[in-house]
Design a protein that fits this description.
about 400 residues, alpha+beta, Nucleotidyltransferase, domain 5, Gyrase A, domain 2, 3 domains, five-stranded mixed sheet, 7 helices, about 30% helix, elongated
């Protein structure tokens, strides 16, 4: 995804000021660049603001106990002794924890930061991150990295620490570099010196600083527009300036839970399919066994459609031939219904119809819930009951009740 990088120096004032910009491809390499006002910058890309080194101060501080929620109001006062501005005018962002337990914090002028955010919002730019240029150069083991244009620049001393450098020349080092070396808790073994890419070759002589008792090693040219921006780089858009989270930013956090949910659903689906397959197999096996029993009992001359129903009817015929009653006869069915119906007022049954093992009763009751009670009580006697559409008659409700022998649907 293309990223729009915009460089803001201390000379930038408001939306009418111009600033350098670069549109970078997926690999972070610039494909377009220029100098323009914020309002005329390319739209439709996530935007990263690069803030010049002299606009950001990095200092190590000891933080009071408490959660990050308190830091937004506490940090400006913790950093007050290192700044000349009032705490209310400083935006202080927490950085990583140092080996001695202190934490690096980055300080930027709140009004300057707000002007950038407001200008980006007015220009409809998707400003997602704001990074201090001081933190962009890579660090090698036991070294610092200094970006230099022949007279000024900045030095990066740690993951989230560095300092802007004041005026110097070929023979005189910047005063800020000397102070940084004096106050460092651990000195590097060398300083990698990187010239800005637009500094002419004839002006790129290695400084001869006798006061700096460290070797200066030439490095690659420095270009903020193509510098790698680490994912864990401190984002100055913190606290009240933090942008709203986008769904793309939440997806990596939700992905493990989503995969787990998909796995559970997949197992559930597979389990359900296996269960249905087993039930279907059992049903098919039972049906074949019933058909085999029917053929063995009554021969192959009878057309077999529904083994269970036809077996029940054959048994009923045998019982009738022997002078015995079957559960599907009129009187046995009526006997199963009689006792539950006795609990309701006389005249509740308006008509009765019986045919081929099926007993239909038109019943009128006081309310719909009475039908549920009646159905449950009849089913407790071992027969199947179906309740038809319940109609409101004005002075009660009525419906058709169908009673069948057990095993018949």
């Amino acid at each position: 995804m293309s990223i729009l990088r915009v460089y803001f120096s201390a000379q930038w004032r408001d939306s009418t000021s111009t600033c350098p910009w670069a549109l970078c491809d997926d690999n972070g390499m610039p494909v377009q660049s220029g100098i323009a006002t914020v309002a005329t910058l390319p739209k439709g890309h996530d935007c990263v603001a690069i803030v010049a080194a002299d606009c950001v101060l990095s200092i190590p501080v000891s933080l009071p106990t408490g959660g990050r929620r308190r830091w937004q109001s506490v940090l400006p006062y913790v950093a007050e002794e290192f700044t000349v501005a009032d705490p209310e005018d400083s935006h202080v962002v927490p950085g990583p924890v140092l080996d001695d337990g202190r934490r690096m914090v980055l300080v930027v002028d709140k009004s300057f930061l707000k002007r950038i955010v407001d200008a980006a919002h007015a220009a409809k730019l998707s400003l997602r991150r704001m990074i201090a240029e001081t933190l962009l150069p890579e660090l090698t083991h036991d070294s610092w990295t200094m970006v230099w244009n022949g007279s000024s620049g900045f030095v990066k001393t740690g993951t989230a620490s560095g300092a802007a450098l004041d005026i110097g020349d070929e023979h005189t080092p910047p005063l800020a570099l000397g102070l940084t070396l004096q106050t460092a808790s651990e000195l590097p073994k060398k300083i990698i010196l990187r010239y800005l890419k637009d500094v002419p070759l004839e002006q790129r002589s290695m400084p001869n600083w006798s006061d700096v008792h460290l070797p200066l090693i030439p490095g690659e040219d420095w270009d903020w527009s193509s510098a790698d921006i680490a994912e864990d780089s401190v984002n100055l858009l913190w606290g009240s300036f933090a942008p709203r989270a986008k769904i793309q930013e939440w997806l990596p956090k939700l992905r493990p839970a989503a995969f787990l949910l998909l796995a559970v659903l997949a197992l559930e689906t597979i389990g359900s399919n296996i269960e249905w397959a087993m039930l279907a197999y059992q049903k098919n096996t039972l049906s074949k066994a019933m058909q085999k029993t029917f053929r063995t009992t009554f021969g192959d001359t009878v057309m077999l459609v529904n083994a269970a129903l036809q077996m029940q009817r054959k048994l009923a015929d045998l019982k009738h031939g022997a002078g015995l009653a079957d559960t599907g006869d009129f009187l046995p069915l009526l006997n199963q219904v009689g006792r539950p119906l006795a609990a309701f007022p006389a005249g509740s049954v308006t008509s009765i119809h019986y045919e081929a093992g099926r007993l239909d009763l038109n019943i009128k009751l006081a309310q719909k819930t009475d039908f549920e009670t009646l159905k449950k009580n009849i089913q407790n006697n071992g027969v199947n009951v179906r309740v038809g559409e319940i109609r409101d008659t004005g002075n009660g409700v009525e419906a058709k009740l169908t009673v069948l022998p057990e095993g018949v649907q």
